[in-house]
Amino acid sequence: MYVYDSFDQTLLNERVAEFSEQIKRRMSGELTEEEFRPLRLMNGTYLQLHAYMLRISIPYGTLSARKLRMLAHIARHYDRGYGHFTTRQNIQFHWIKLEQLPNAVADLASVGLHGMQTSGNCVRNISTDQWAGAARDEIADPRVYAEILRQHFTLHPEFSFLPRKFKIGITGATHDRAAVKMHDIALWLRRGSDGEIGFEVGVGGGLGRTPYLAETIRPFCRREDLLGYIEAVLRVYNQYGRRDNVWKARIKILVHDLGVEKFRDEVEREFAAAKDYAPVLDDTLVAEIAERFTYPDFETLADDPPELLAALKNPDFKTWYLNCVDAHRMPGHAIVTISLKPVGLTGGDCTAEHMEAIADLAERHGYGEIRNGHEQNLCLPSVRQRDLFTLWRKLDAAGLALTNVNLITDIIACPGLDYCSLANARSIPIAMEITRRFRDLDLQRNIGRLHINISGCINACGHHHIGHIGILGVEKQGQEFYQITLGGTADENARLGTLIGPAVPFDKVPDVVEDIVAAYIELRERPDEIFVDTVKRLGIQPFKERVYAVR
Amino acid sequence: MTSPLDQKLRIEGLVVITANRLRDGAVIYRTAAGGWSTRLADAVVVSTEGEAKALLRDAAAEGTVAVGPYPAPVELTDDHAILPGNLRERIRCSGPTFDLPRVPAET
Amino acid sequence: MPFVRGGKIVADEFQRVGDEAPIPDGVPALLSAKRYLAEAGALATRNAPLGVIWPNSRTVADLAPYLDRLATIALVFPSFRDGRAYSQARLLRQRYKYRGELRATGQVLRDQFLFMLRAGFTAFEAAKDSDAEAFPEVIHRYTRYYQPSVDRRPVIAQERRKEDEEAPAPRRAAS
């Protein structure tokens, strides 16, 4: 992970001082709310239904044990004892007081955490694969480039007042776990003809009212051109993106209004014209950032040590192993996922106690590192295989050894109307009831991999468009209704889901999900044909009939 | 429930003026005395656009206590208790519609 | 509206002249883009400084042929949230090599001064007296910046390079 040097820390401290001063000027009335709002947003501070919400950036989803303990401290001292891991690899605290915020941001800054660029019309947290640096299928670790981009666009003088928010996703793996295609800029690490590192660059992805998936405008951008090229994209967007209508202000709208070809031409022209003075990502700059990354000093170990093989005789451990453990690029190691999706509780929430327990376990058994992904679960990216049984026992004792990862109760949901002032409908109670209906693990395993995504409004923070089952809350005459889509996927073959019919009322949604699942069980070709493949094979018609036949 | 701040000021039925408290974001209601309370029961209830606008004008004039005041629908019970008039206001009044994560008491 | 230049509140010698009004003789004059472009030829021999107010919705490439005749260019922030003028400023400085005064007008608030300075602005029509007075303090909020820009303020990458060359430090363990 990246380790702040004195320059990073100084800039952060100066930011904290600036924000604290801005808060003071707001509390005294010297700043109006209209003037203060974009300033607090640029520091990740929202005003929601009940309180202020603080969104803290977790760059490329990587945390140290020390940072996770600080998040526990924030939860305990400034909030109501818990935090919420989000669908963009950040964490949110929902009960923050503005008057305490200067202290909270100072505490966070002491370990290099902050809310900079988590909101506002600037370049947001750059999302990556939570298995970066640990997975087997990576060309290279994307996090170095995520950090380079983060620094370059932090308080950027030209691009801090864009028409709208700007999200970049980057992956270095063949299997895209970061859903990069739904970002304004999608970056894939690629190797060029000489084996050198470069990037495929896509633009125009984004969910919300008009969802689009990113399209490639430069199949291979040389590494040294990356910053200049992205600046060219941003400059075209900053000048021509719409500012008159908030629903049409994202770059995806500009790309589609101009057409991808014309948009690309504009970018290429801008890039060429700026050649003399554009920032260059030279080897020295990459090395400077890469040097500030620390990597675990991996022990030299062999796969399948005797401790693990013996432990696999324990059926409960085996169940956990099969669900939560994945292959690591280093022999003798493994990736462990910790599900934050218990039955009947809010998915993605984590208490201060659980955060501390996980921090301890990371230090003990995980080289001190924790990750969070857009699925709202946590991960210990590097665990010695011989420690897995011991780790499992401790996770289980803490209630953190759930075995529903990627199953139907591993739901991705936005906070919805229970917290968020943008929402039209609630999402968490829907998720809770679905988890109750499907609590039986044998049933869940029989169903297999099934991603449900729930959004409480068209802003789509639950990413419902790319859910295998997508649920979108809408308001009709003061009542909550939900549109159901099927067949969305988030990976390298990303697809948007298809609406199956008229919206259904709040209390009927779990029934509808049960009907859809029942239809799938009947219609699947084999038990291991997963839900989304059945939908792809048959289309939505048989599911539509099942759901609407009786309604 | 579209954000009330985006809606035209059209009063149908009974409303109170509500906002978030600047210093901590808490939900507050305008009282007859011209102050703010966290209790809906203390709110002054009005039924015409003119009354609502007057309350809003006063609320907006001060600017260091309340953020984003707007008229929120309410209902009165037979014994004149004030109830929130829609789901969004119920949630603002009583909090999220589920139990928050259970945390051990501080020792 | 207080005018800040060189880090201080000073009197603005430029007068804004409406499209229909006669341009006073010997007085620094600020004209709209429309008027300036229409009369640029005739104004070339004028004996006092000229400036143009350039809209943020129009490409600065159209202004490029006239840069060496202009003493000031005023760019516009209709709302402080509308950041188009930042790109315009940077283009004028870095692509078109404009060396004259670049002034920020419109809703110019203290929390944007630093962004503006770094984008190449050298003068500010501040919206509030208190913001203009705070200018000297505000521009020292940050000592170094992550990215190079138009200005000469210290850039972190360069400072790192210097430090690494002088005394390469062992990397610290993860914290």
Number of distinct helices of chain A = 18
Q: Tell me the overall shape of chain B.
A: globular
Secondary-structure element order of chain B, N to C: EEEHEEH
Give the termini separation of chain B: 41 Å
Low-confidence stretches of chain B are none
**Uncertain runs of chain A with pLDDT below 50, 5 residues or more?**
none
SS-based structural class of chain B? alpha+beta
Summary keywords:
heterotrimer, A: 551 residues, Sulfite Reductase Hemoprotein, domain 2, Sulfite Reductase Hemoprotein, domain 1, 4 domains, 6-stranded mixed beta sheet, 21 strands, C: TIM Barrel, 5 helices
Walk me through what this model shows.
The complex is a heterotrimer of chains A (551), B (107) and C (175). Chain A is built from 18 helices and 21 strands. By secondary structure, chain A is an alpha+beta fold. Chain A folds into 4 domains: 6-109, Alpha-Beta Complex (Sulfite Reductase Hemoprotein, domain 2); 134-290, Sulfite Reductase Hemoprotein, domain 1, CATH 3.30.413; 306-397, Alpha-Beta Complex (Sulfite Reductase Hemoprotein, domain 2), CATH 3.90.480; 412-549, 2-Layer Sandwich (Sulfite Reductase Hemoprotein, domain 1). In chain A, strands 16, 17, 18, 19, 20 and 21 form a 6-stranded mixed sheet that branches. In chain A, helix 3 (65-78) runs antiparallel to helix 4, helix 7 (251-258) crosses helix 8 (260-273) and helix 16 (509-523) crosses helix 18 (541-549). The longest helix of chain A is centred in the N-terminal third of the chain and has 22 residues, at 6-27. Chain B is of the alpha+beta class. Helix content of chain B is 21%, strand content 26%. Chain B has a 5-stranded antiparallel sheet with strand order 3-2-1-4-5. The model of chain B has no long low-confidence stretch (mean pLDDT 88). By secondary structure, chain C is an alpha/beta fold. Chain C has one domain (3-166): TIM Barrel. In chain C, strands 2-1-8-7-6-5-4-3 form an 8-stranded mixed sheet. The chains are: A alpha+beta (551), B alpha+beta (107), C alpha/beta (175). Chains A and C meet through helix 1, helix 2, helix 5, helix 6 and helix 9 of A and helix 2, helix 3 and helix 5 of C.
